[in-house]
Amino acid sequence: MKASQCIKAPSRRGGKAISVARYLGIFQEDLKPISRGEYVLVPISRQPSEPELNAIRSQLVEANFEAAEFPERRRTAGSLLTLLQDSLPPHLLACLPRSIDQVGDIAVIEVPEELSGFKKMIGEAVLKLNRNMHTVLAKASPVSGKCRIRKFEIIAGKGETATIHREHGCRYRVDLAKVYFSPRLGYEHSRVASQVTEGEVVVDMFSGVGAFSIMIARKVGNVKVYAIDINPETIKLLEENLALNRVQGKVHPTLGDSREVIGKSLVGVADRVIMNLPEESKRFVESACKSIKREGGILHYYTFTAEPDSLGKARSELTRAVKDAGREVGEVTSTRSVKPSAPHEWLVVVDAKVY
Fold first, then answer.
1. Most trustworthy range by pLDDT among 10-14, 61-65, 146-150, 243-247
2. What is the DSSP track for 83-94?
3. Which of 87, 130, 133, 257 is deepest in the core (most CB within 10 A)?
């Protein structure tokens, strides 16, 4: 056990507390967070500065700070730092990637420009640390284009971009060279699916390979999900994933722009609409409102907003957009910061009842 300062947050906000600490660079990686009653204690490496305190409290209103004893993490395989500390120039060690996204047996990392000459070395180290991964991809571009594709550079392993990703009992065929997929949204997929009730009609406006749609179909017996995507490769994989998860007939895949699809055949049918296209969601609110039944329904709205008050900005953005579409937000049932998307910017979700 080792003493450390920590962020004390309600258990339901534990994942958020860890995300915020990592984003600020103060998460104590060599110690394990612990549960204490209704709270989770997240170890931090130092006392936060005043701007950092403001950032923490803007995202975790109920957070407090205290000292506690934490169990140390076992370092059986070491870390990127320990593996590479004798191979990299000392001034570059602080630039090493702090997080690795795992999609099936593929590791995805972001290599800073300062380390561009050491990509292969870093990739091999990632494989050594993670024996269950067979390929390491380095991000080579931002997500762009109407199909939301990112370019990758193969820096170690077999060089495959296709894999099967497992999440909450579901399996998804993914090809990162052809479709967009984020393993960081696993909690969101489960959270939204847990709210769907028997007999609902759901419109998933930007379905991807089916992470929201298939989990809903797996969890709810009597449900109809319309899964729309503009990328033909995505729809092909979605159809494979319906068979893989045995939910054919409950999820109806449709290729096309969701505004056109809704306008032609899905006006006034939805009890619930999922809008996971954060960079452009605002442009699609009018179509989402058209899809919701006349008596109202639930909207899950994902968007990027900047600090301060990123949650408040997201609520206001959605409320204005719904009003411009000729409907009203009756109640905002939940707002949540999902993950950092850029310095001082967050991916935020707003759940709202629309009438």
1. 243-247
2. HHTTTS-GGGGG
3. 133
Task: Give 345's contacts (C-beta < 8 A, 6+ positions apart).
Answer: 304, 305, 306, 307, 310
User: Buried (b) or exposed (e) across 227-238, using 16+ Cβ within 10 A?
Assistant: bbbbbeebbbbb
For 286, the enclosing helix (H) or strand (E) is helix 285-291
Whether 188 contacts 162, CB under 8 Å: no
Query: What's the rounded Cα separation, in Å, for the pair 343 and 309?
Result: 14
- Find out whether 97 and 139 touch, Cβ atoms under 8 Å: no
Contact, 66 vs 40, CB < 8 A? no
Q: Provide CB contacts within 8 A for 75, sequence distance 6+.
A: 30, 82
Statement: residue 113 has pLDDT above 80: yes
> Residues 53-81: what's their mean pLDDT?
78
Q: What is the DSSP letter of 79?
A: -
Is residue 34 within 8 A of residue 9, CB to CB? The reply is: no
Q: Which residues pair with 107 in a beta bridge?
A: 102, 136
Q: Taking the domain 80-160, which CATH number applies?
A: 3.30.300.110
> pLDDT tens, 22-57?
878 898 877 889 988 889 999 998 888 877 887 888
Q: Collapsing DSSP states into helix, strand and coil, what is residue 75?
A: coil
Q: How far apart are CA 299 and CA 355, in angstroms?
A: 10
Q: N- to C-terminal Cα distance for the chain?
A: 53
- Total number of residues shown for the chain: 355
Helix (H) or strand (E) holding 125: helix 119-129
In this structure, how many other beta carbons lie within 10 angstroms of the beta carbon of residue 195?
Answer: 16
* Backbone conformation region of residue 268, classed left if phi is above 0, alpha if psi is from -120 to 50, else beta: left
* Span of 73-77, 80-84, 172-176, 340-344 with lowest mean pLDDT: 73-77
Q: Write down the architecture of domain 179-354 according to CATH.
A: 3-Layer(aba) Sandwich (3.40)
Q: Say which CATH topology domain 2-70 has.
A: Alpha-Beta Plaits (3.30.70)
Question: What are 272's two structure tokens?
Answer: 């619930």
Q: Where are the domains of the chain?
A: 2-70, 80-160, 179-354
As given in the structure block, the two tokens for residue 250 are 């409950």
